[in-house]
């Protein structure tokens, strides 16, 4: 039997395999799931239904988004809710080519609403394990401190997380940026480093380049989340390029939050031309109009990035991941093992006797 003719007509695009490194699990709460959880938990949402909620996603700044993001989280109450959220994300991510995801969550936002951290961790753990297996995605969790709650609250949060040390790979810093520089979080990041946790920080999304310098030099951040404002500071660009510090850029987020006025202002090409280690990510995809491959498609369609550049961006995501076995930065290179004595030219004689 011979194979039939190849199917004609346009083929569905096959998304590039990629890692997602900047993804807030709470930002994957789709309006439909939000309403199902609202009903399950008896938590009213001030919208007529999913379409009405989605119609409210007209943001003018990071803060205008965060207000709605924190309010809608109210429907997440129990472990099962977090498990459903995580599993739903992994199903969508896998369909967009994601093979590995390093996922942010906001412990303080849940504990402050009276949701025990144990429920959050149990639910995320179950959802990521089940969804990861089902959809073929490896995952790691990164707990973010809310910068607008200050460093003392972050230290308390890190203390609570110690009970779940084996469930997290790192810590991050997120929420309202302007007016909340990284520097006061030096102590909590140092404590996280002593725990062997990776460190990342949002910086240079709305905030100035100085916040990126602080994230690097004061917090020891291994990756910068967003970082697009680095382009305003040539010395900073040289530093980021020299050290190949990964930047987790999120184009659709930048557009929706008016960090970029239009696609022409999404500086991915400029960042690549400057030799920066750019990765493409989805941030809060349920709110920003697309998942990670939708961001890739936007770059191709709107900025004309070619296939080779898109493959480079996808390859960068694996290189920048904490799963990568290769060291990311010169500073992280381990000393070479001591030279072994040269092996004998021919097999040593067997010991007799
Ligand atoms: C966030 Cl887009 C963005 N920026 C800062 N913090 C966040 N938390 C969730 N999404
Ligand atoms: Zn983010």
Number of domains: 1
Nearest-integer average pLDDT: 92
Radius of gyration: 22 Å
Could you spell the SSE succession in H and E letters?
EHHHHEHHEHEHEHEHEHHEHHH
Please state the second-level CATH architecture: Alpha-Beta Barrel
Helical amount among residues, as a percent range? 40-55%
Distance between the termini: 67 Å
> Spans with pLDDT under 50 lasting ≥5 residues?
325-353
Stated plainly, the CATH topology is called TIM Barrel
Structure, explained:
The chain is an alpha/beta fold and 353 residues long. The protein has a single domain (20-323), classed as TIM Barrel. The protein is 42% helix and 12% strand. The protein contains 15 helices and 8 strands. The chain has an 8-stranded parallel beta sheet. Helix 8 links the parallel strand 4 and strand 5. The chain is globular. The model is unreliable at 325-353 (pLDDT under 50). The protein binds 6-chloro-9H-purine (ES4) and zinc ion.
Features:
disordered C terminus; binds 6-chloro-9H-purine; 8-stranded parallel β-sheet; alpha/beta; binds zinc ion; single chain; 353 residues; 42% helix; TIM Barrel
Q: What does this entry show, briefly?
A:
The protein is of the alpha/beta class and 353 residues long. Helix content is 42%, strand content 12%.
Task: Set out the fold topology.
Blueprint: E1 18-20, H1 31-41, H2 50-55, H3 62-72, H4 79-95, E2 98-105, H5 107-111, H6 117-135, E3 138-146, H7 150-161, E4 170-174, H8 186-194, E5 198-203, H9 209-217, E6 223-226, H10 234-242, E7 246-249, H11 251-256, H12 268-273, E8 277-280, H13 285-288, H14 292-303, H15 307-319
Parallel strand pairs: 1-2, 2-3, 3-4, 4-5, 5-6, 6-7, 7-8
The protein binds 6-chloro-9H-purine and zinc ion.
Zinc ion is lined by residues 22, 24, 174, 202, 225, 283.
């Amino acid at each position: 039997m011979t194979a039939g003719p190849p199917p004609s007509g346009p083929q569905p695009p096959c998304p590039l395999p990629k890692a997602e490194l900047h993804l807030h699990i709470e930002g994957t709460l789709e309006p439909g799931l939000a309403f199902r959880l609202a009903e399950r938990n008896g938590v009213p949402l001030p919208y007529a239904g999913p379409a009405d909620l989605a119609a409210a996603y007209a943001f003018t700044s990071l803060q205008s988004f965060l207000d709605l993001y924190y309010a809608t989280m109210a429907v997440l109450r129990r472990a099962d809710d977090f498990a459903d959220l995580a599993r739903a994300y992994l199903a969508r991510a896998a369909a967009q080519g994601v093979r590995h995801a390093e996922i942010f969550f906001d412990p303080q936002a849940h504990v402050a609403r009276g949701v025990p951290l144990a429920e959050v961790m149990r639910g995320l753990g179950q959802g990521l394990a089940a969804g990861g297996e089902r959809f073929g995605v490896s995952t790691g969790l990164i707990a973010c401190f809310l910068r607008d709650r200050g460093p003392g609250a972050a230290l308390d949060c890190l203390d609570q997380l110690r009970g779940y040390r084996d469930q997290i790979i790192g810590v991050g810093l997120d929420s309202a940026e302007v007016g909340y520089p990284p520097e006061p979080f030096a102590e909590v990041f140092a404590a996280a480093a002593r725990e062997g946790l990776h460190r990342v920080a949002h910086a240079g999304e709305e905030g100035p380049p100085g916040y990126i310098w602080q994230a690097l030099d004061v917090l020891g951040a291994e990756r910068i989340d967003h970082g697009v404002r680095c382009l305003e500071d040539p010395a900073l660009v040289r530093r980021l390029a020299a050290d190949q510090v990964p930047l987790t850029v999120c184009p659709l987020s930048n557009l929706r939050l008016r960090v970029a006025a239009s696609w022409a202002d999404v500086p991915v090409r400029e960042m690549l031309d400057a030799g920066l280690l750019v990765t493409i990510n989805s941030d809060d995809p349920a709110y920003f109009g697309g998942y990670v491959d939708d961001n890739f498609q936007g770059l191709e369609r709107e900025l004309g990035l070619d296939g080779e550049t898109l493959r480079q961006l996808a390859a960068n995501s694996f290189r920048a991941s904490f799963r990568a076995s290769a060291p990311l930065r010169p500073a992280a290179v381990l000393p070479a093992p001591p030279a072994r004595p040269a092996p004998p030219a021919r097999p040593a004689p067997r010991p007799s006797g």
